[in-house]
Amino acid sequence: MWYVIQTITGKEQELVDLVYKMLPKTVYKECFFLKRQLLKRLGGEWLEVTETLFPAYVFLDLTNADEVFYELKRIPEFSKLLGDNLGEFIPLEEEERKFLELLCANESPVNNADKGAGYYLVRNTKVYLDAQGEIERLDGPLEYFKEKIIRLNLRKRYALIETAIRGEQQTAMLGIKLEKD
Q1: What confidence tens digit (pLDDT) does each residue in 111-152 have?
Q2: For the residues of 22-66, what is the DSSP string, one character each?
Q3: Are 130 and 119 in contact (CB under 8 A)?
Q4: CA-CA distance, 140 to 129, in Å (whole number)?
Q5: pTM of the predicted structure, to 2 decimals
Q6: C-beta of residue 29 within 8 angstroms of C-beta of residue 61
Q7: What domains can you pick out in the chain, each with its CATH number?
């Protein structure tokens, strides 16, 4: 089951590294965070940059949450486990987990050196437009979430989609590439 750990923004990789270092591998399957590709225009050129998709969120695939809870408390970068207001450590809903799996579909984790810890990279979606400028086809992570797009900015090469993580509405900015790029 997948759980969410909230940490300090920018410290996601440090927390993932510490989980791999401090927790026995038998109590969890994987620990990761998500990054996204974006195109940014700099000096008239489109550059591909990588940013954290959900800042301060680290995902942990656990076999037994009760065993891990106190171990996680020893990790300095650990902030809190997202759950209910009663202090229960609750896994992601099935729909939330499937959303994250589809974002990372066909991707292998990007490892940080030899630590075995890493992140998944959500790649840009290629957008094909018809003669009227309407979306004809999407190739990439956004093809699964066309109905969740709340804003599409072709000029700045991004799409905003809305989703929930642990019951909280989140907006995720995903990168797009046009056919001509």
Answers
A1: 654 455 589 999 999 999 998 988 899 999 999 999 999 999
A2: HS-GGGEEEEEEEEEEEEEEETTEEEEEEEESSTTEEEEEES-HH
A3: no
A4: 15
A5: 0.85
A6: yes
A7: 2-178 (3.30.70.940)
